[in-house]
Amino acid sequence: MTTENTPQPAGDIRWHEHAISREDRWAKQNSRGCTLWLTGLSGAGKSTIANAAAHQLFASGVPAYVLDGDNLRHGLNVDLGFSDTDRAENVRRVGEVALLLADAGFVVFVPIISPFFAGRQAVRQRHESAGLGFAEVFIATSVEECAERDTKGLYAKAAKGELTGLTGVNAPYEAPRSPEMTLLTSQRSVETCAEELLSGMNHLWS
Ligand code: ADP
Asked: How far are the Cα atoms of 117, 120, 199 from residue 193, in angstroms, in the given order?
């Protein structure tokens, strides 16, 4: 499960095959794990859509999990800030956790800004080489609309010069080049977006 983009383990570290195969685990749980990676600006709707879709999927009996980037910053990623290097490491770690949960059989929703193409591509490659389904979903809400919503007050702060490093305003965002899905959220309900996501991607788990 390695690619040229991931560091290799140092020393005499060997890969151990699991006593329970992925196939056996998935068959027993009647599930197929995969990762849906929702990228977009702050306030685009990533978390809202991820939670609505996961809730709907879970209600239909599919194991679903939302891997929230902010929540992981309370623990696993508590040592990381918002420099380009730390953001890249944040994405790498979240990608690795998603991969483990997908391997365990969950449909993993990952709402995370993940501004750089290379980081998202590396996570994709890690899933592909592990034989796990992966889809990049671009939550394509314009910066103007995100600023109007301003759910966390970040755009107002940036406008007043009190915040630097806000993606799409004073920090770069590299939009996906060929996402599996692009979701427009403007003038559309959360439910409509969640349903579009689930119906477009359900080949990954059903
Ligand atoms: P992000 O996770 O991308 O930072 P959030 O999901 O936290 O964004 O916030 C998005 C905001 O936009 C919420 O207040 C949500 O209610 C609102 N919103 C309006 N329309 C939509 C939509 N179609 N899909 C998702 N969110 C929407």
From this structure: 23, 22, 10
